[in-house]
Amino acid sequence: MELRDDTVWDGATAFATLARTANGAVSLQLIAPVVVGRDAAIAVVAVLTQARVPVLDVADALLRAAAREAGWTGALRAPLVAPAGTVELLDPVATVQTLVVGAEIRRRGFSRRALSIRVTTTDRLRMKVKVPDRPDVMPEMLAAALDTALAVRRRFGRMASGVHAISIDDGAGGFDDHRNAGAATSGTGTFFLDTSLACADAMDAQRRRMAGGRGISATVPRPWFQIDGVVAHEYWHNLDTTVLATPATYVEINRALGAELGVATFEHALRGREETAPPEWQHALARVVHEVSPYATTNMREATAEMFKLWWCAPPQAELSPLVARFGALLDRFYPPPA
Questions:
Q1: What is the distance between the alpha carbons of residues 49 and 308, in angstroms, rounded to a whole number?
Q2: What is the SS3 assignment for 313?
Q3: For 60, which of 70, 163, 245, 275 is 20 to 30 Å away at the CA?
């Protein structure tokens, strides 16, 4: 690849253009719908480094991983600054330490197969993340997963205290087919993430399998990564056990979400695909698909997990969809933030 007139070219094909952002950084805008693989990400970063681009503002996980490997530095989810001197080999634990603010990061034990990291924050929260010990691990994605999990823990306090570990493996704790990005098992204190969220080669392979297509789960906006959204979704499956254990709260949330959709309860909206469903149920179901995701129509638990993901990963001042905004207001009402 090469850079000509603020355009990155892949041979005779224009790949992306450079655009200056308000903060003086450079962002990449793809010219045509392409799947950015690991090799392409490395090539693009090499071109930008050689062209002495000073600051790069991108959200793509593979581009950011390639940039960090090439010596670009920056805070978690923030613009990256070009390398100024000798580039050293990334150490995953040391890199996570620089990215997770207010925490001590330590490697826990040594294994040829797994990298286990224990985090202790200044406010005495603890979390462990375990990932295959392989050279394509993306430290920023590990940091993002920890940052989101710890933030949820702080926001919901004891209600969120049941999660102690994040395990990243092929198949997210299930079959090794990469169909599930995450999974949660009640009572284990652990939720599972697929390697395609945190390992560059696995992410590259997943993108090729998807061939540019979108999944049925909700997509989170910048500055959040896909791994942030999956962590939020799976963490909700721990939080919602408290909701389910308080029937009066569950019923009120169910009715309030239904009222937002113009039906008696949210569960009536989920029945909108039944052959005998009245028009208002069908319309409510269509709103769930449009305002949340197709996956949110699976059942009540998955619907609320998808809404939680979009509510938690909303950028500041973002305008949420009416349904997600109503869900967030209900959380603040029943489970108010700490003072």
A1: 38
A2: coil
A3: 163
Structural tokens at position 66: 């390639």
How close are the terminal C-alpha atoms of the chain, in Å?
A: 52
Cα distances (angstroms) measured from residue 175 to each of 80, 133, 179, 182, 215: 36, 20, 8, 12, 18
The C-alpha atoms of residue 206 and residue 212 are separated, in whole angstroms, by 10
Mean of the per-residue pLDDT values for the chain?
A: 91
Q: At what angle do helices 61-69 and 139-156 cross, to 10 degrees?
A: 120
Residue type, 267: E
Going by C-alpha positions, the residue among 249, 316, 258, 309 that lies closest to residue 287 is 258
pTM, 2 dp: 0.93
Q: How much is the average pLDDT of 308-313?
A: 98
Q: Which residues of 305-338 are buried (b: 16+ CB within 10 A; e: fewer)?
A: bbbbbbbbbbeeeeebbebbbbbbebbeeebeee
Across residues 194-216, what is the average pLDDT? Answer: 90
Whether 292 contacts 218, CB under 8 Å: yes
Residue 91 is which amino acid?
D
**pLDDT surpassing 60 at residue 173:** no
> Which structure tokens are listed for 246?
């308080």
Helices and strands: H and E segment counts in the chain = 11, 12
